[in-house]
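User:
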Amino acid sequence: MKITIIGNGTMGGLIKDALLKKHVFAKADLFFIGRDDAKTPDTNIYLFAVKPQDFVEASKRLKGVKGKILISIMAGVPTAKISKILPGNKVVRSMPNLGAKTFDSMTTWMAKGNLTPAEKKMIKMILSSFGEELEVKNDDMIDKATALAGSGPGFMYFIADSLTKQAVKFGFAKDDAQKLIKQMFTGTINTWNSSDATAAELQKKVTSKKGTTEAGINSFKKNKLPTVLSRGLNAAYKRAKQLSK
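Assistant: Predicted structure:
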């Protein structure tokens, strides 16, 4: 198979590098084009790595093309819109997140049009070249994943920033506070990744009765932190739905 990445910006370049690094495609089978490139190669797969507002213009390159696999990493562009503009093709809508920059993305995806086992395997190889992939059933699940994993890094940075500011209030120097919180996040995620336990199970393991962790968690529950987080995620999901219309 051969692939053309349409959109030679940061994400397009990152995906190109990942596909070559992981040997998903040979260099001769991968094409990387931008808006200034006049020619569009004839390949089996086309991956749109353009801004959502540039899709209609970029799609003109494939006018009349049929029987191809079209992969989108464009936020807020539903499969129905892609299929309407470029009918007769198999459409894969995917949602990577910020982790793609270090090949640690959590990418959710769905397909419109029956993929063969070989095609599905190829899609998984493409998306897992820059992180983990998870297939979902429909556009609505992509929107929900956008709220969870797409916006999630921003939420985690928001929480990390709040913890860092509290560390400074405790008397730590700013650089030391950032080091303290950054390594805490790193160790926590690495421990979770090395375990088959759920987050809830690990939380119980580190929560000693009448200890400091229990005191903090009880305060979080009393102040309805789970409800606050749920409301934030629902607000992000609602916005994702609006952008998909």
